[in-house]
Protein: Carbamoyltransferase
Organism: Luedemannella helvata
Amino acid sequence: MRHMPVDAGAQPRDARYTLGVNIGFHDSSAALLRDGALVAMVEQEKVSRRKHALGQAPVAAIQECLALAGVDLDSLAGVAIGWDINLTRMAGRRRFSPVGLRALLFPDAPAGQLPPVTWVRHHLAHAASAYYACGEDNVAIIVIDGAGENQCTSLLHGRDGRIELLREWPIDQSLGFFYASASKWAGLGEWGAGKLMGLAAYGRPSGSLPLRALPDGYALSLDGVDQVGGENGGDLMTLSFPPAYEAAVRSAFACHYPYTERQGEDAMSYTDFAASVQQALEDAVLSLAAEARRRVDAPTLVLAGGVGMNCTMIGRLVDSGLYDRVYVPPVPTDVGVSFGAALVEARDSGVFTPVPMDHAYWSTPFTDVERAISDAGLVCRPLAEAGLARVAARTLADGGVVAWARGRGEVGQRALGTRSLLADPRDRGTWERLNIIKGREMWRPIAPSVLEEHLAEIFPAGVGDPAAFMLAASSVAPSMRRVMPATTHVDGSARPQRVQRATNPAYWQVIEEFRQLTGVPAVANTSFNLAGEPIVYTAADAVSTFVRAKDIDLLVLDRYVVARGYADLPEDPVG
């Protein structure tokens, strides 16, 4: 697959290109910088169509980034990897030698030398992905995930372009692994953290758990195992606690109703358990944030690591008032370490122009659109920008579901208005319909995309910067809960996306047209994919998903409205 280079013809010949990669066992990715500024970022899973890209090197992601910039391997001044292999049990393996890395990352490239490789510590890469993207120079930084080389949580300080480590917690204290273990216990799977968070809203915290907030952070106290100071991790394959710790966590969970691991019964039996785990996590992170505030005299907190995807926790952090500003990048997960590692290498090279990341549209645009539509036997009509927005908004106002796929794709797990399924938030049935289309559990919430100009009307308490990437939950105004029942969760909250005209004018116009028709400045938005699949990447992916999901009424793909037959093909309502 090939793409027109971004900013074709505008690139100086002496530009310095840095490639960042995540080569971990999951969520591999690539990010390309030109003179220290991000040009392209691609997740391997979206190209390969294997969820989380388990066991895959980011070969296709690298190829896509290079193609987008119109450069090749020989153009790279350096390659930065978001792990320091020398600190893991995989140190010295041949696959990480220069010859092995070239074969791993560039298997189809002509023979030649690999550009200089920089190994960047995992949590440093996470921290860089947030600090250098937030647009401020003096910030407190918290990184929380499953595991780095030999740590799971880090407190850091970003100042004068440098990142200083203040404190870290060993892997036996992993909040990420603790939450993942709870997800498995509730029968929601290895990757069920988001599901557990949604389930927690239905329950009430009760019972005791081994995770405790402390005045200077937190502690995870497990009976029957020795605390090993972090020596139990660091092999890139780590997705959970070692067996002894997993057994100890499971023993602690067994003290909580319903006292046994879920074996297929209704998930609602685990709502109080989920609520208890969620509250324990939030209390621990709030204590971490307070400790960071004591150590760093800065009004801004930036947060990265997979736990940063917990929007309920982020919302509580915003509401706490500990900081004037909380910033989370669109890719706080391991996907983001490709970006962070590249930033570290660029900073050390001296060619560094960090640009605030105020949008997530760094992936690829669509190509071969007409061919994909024709090959599927669908019909289409090209429309101007305004016509596409009017057709989509009218379909939504009439109760239809619209697949909206236009422009460069967003990076991260949230669909932010370029690869989205849209519907009417006023109809409670929208919640059920979208979950059926997606093949999701019926109790999982649907989020709203809201015009920036009207966000305070729906979320009077404020959501802060994380709303740009749909990464924080907040309470919906009571008067709006009846207006938008499809996007209001059982606890009265929602996880909004703040839609700015400057960053996504086409999507903003759809919502504005919907507002003019209905009076509601928001639409229901979920990712354009089916269960078990990554978000659509190519035009063929979008068409295939539309064909298989019969309850999607209309596809807007690039400059076309697409339907199953001519009778279903709408015209611009204003001609």
About this structure: Residues 369-568 form a domain with the DHBP synthase fold (CATH 3.90.870.20). Residues 179 and 193 are 7 Å apart (CA to CA). Confidence is low (pLDDT under 50) at residues 228-233. The two ends are 36 Å apart (CA to CA).
